[in-house]
Amino acid sequence: MAAGASGYADILKAPHAARLLAGTLVGRLPNATAHVAIVLFTRAEGGSYTLAGALAAVYGLATAVGQPLLGRLVDLHGQPRVQLPAAVVSALGMALFAVVGTTPLPSAYAAVTVAGLFTPPLEGGLRALWPDVLGRREDRVHRAYAMDAIAQEVMFTVGPLLVTLLVWLFSPAAALLVINAVGVAGAVSVVLSEPSRTWRSAPREAHWLGALRSPGLLALLGSFFFVGLALGSITVAGVAYADDHGRASAYGWLMAALGLGALVGGAVYGARQWAGAPERRLRIIVGLLAIGYLPLVFTPGVAAMTALCAVAGVFLAPAIACAFIVVDRHAPRGTVTEAFSWLVTTFGVGAAVGTAAAGPAVELGGTVAGFAVAGAGGLAALLVLLGTGRVLAAPGRSEHIASGDENDRSGAVEPGFSSGHQA
């Protein structure tokens, strides 16, 4: 672990690395907190939980549509020309929602749709920058992906707490405005950095499917739809579990345990170098992730259930970090930002479907049925990877576009690190 911490520190010492990571996390705060902020604001305006859920769902669907589209534009036109305007438009959409409120309803729906549709693909953009920032060294880029996955867990834990604090100090409307203003500041920090300004995607073949013409990428997206489904179902099943035990705080403990497990797992995973094909490693990690979800159906006491959730979360961050590597290997040349954005979208849609499926499952079969949805999702994710093994075994790109001298300086480069170059 000490070596791993040293490795993370080495990454953050690289020029621009800390700024890009921090700016991306801050820039993504509006997206990470939108569901909480929308629900709290809608309730403060006198809207029902049904309306709050509907508005949050519309925002989520709009984001799912916008991410790969904006990611393709980034690959075509560069980061600053897409990321910053998108961040500003998204913030203006949420500001309109904060000012207009929930009446008239068409305006509210239009505002959250704009905010979601124009959410900048900062997440995919950062992953496209890592190879250039870290000298195209395979070991450092892989560790950066793991650190990225860990940072996500921190952001999705701290973000909602920040919204709650702003609501308590000021108001739900102020929380919406502040969070989105901070998000624009984060995007500005990223796009004004030298790596973002000079990054250019590799030449790409004109094709209407873009990144989706890669069979390996499609296989990965299919698997991570079910990983998202499993995670989304746990959030609903966790509420039902807390209700069963008459302790509202139990839900917080379960979610915190999942996050803690993911943090530990991601830190351990990124602390060492891994031999062998990442596709094979991903099957093992997703298999362990699925196994971790299965014992949740036993729904023991709160202390034991919290421990089970911590174990269930251990392999989530490693699975995401390994998936980043697989995406980079299978994305067609010139489509890396779009490909990463598709992973974000597929995971998010899966989580939304899992949330929707767990509700009826709990009503029909109780809390156990809700957690069974998570177990089924994990197993389905594994089956997709096992069933598409041949497709995943053949990375879509095998050439490296950097010069031979650069290759000699940076060390071994895994096939697929040809997604971009410094202009």
Can you walk through the features of this model?
Helix 11 packs antiparallel against helix 12 (249-270). Strands 1-2 form a two-stranded antiparallel ribbon. Helix content is 78%, strand content 1%. The chain is built from 18 helices and two strands. It is an all-alpha fold and 423 residues long. The longest helix is centred in the C-terminal third of the chain and has 52 residues, at 336-387.
Task: Give a brief outline of the structure.
Strands 1-2 form a two-stranded antiparallel sheet.
Residue ranges: pLDDT <50 for 5 or more in a row? Answer: 398-423
Helix content: over 70%
In whole angstroms, the N-to-C terminal distance is 37 Å
The SSE order reads HHHHHHHHHHEHHHHHHHHE
Described by the principal axes of the CA atoms, the overall outline is globular
From the helix content, strand content and strand pairing, which structural class follows?
A: mainly alpha
Give a quick account of the main beta sheet: strands, pairing sense, barrel closure: 2 strands, antiparallel
The radius of gyration is: 21 Å
Strand content: under 5%
User: Number of DSSP strands?
Assistant: 2
Residue-averaged pLDDT: 84
What's the number of helices? 18
* Strands in their spatial order, largest beta sheet: 1-2
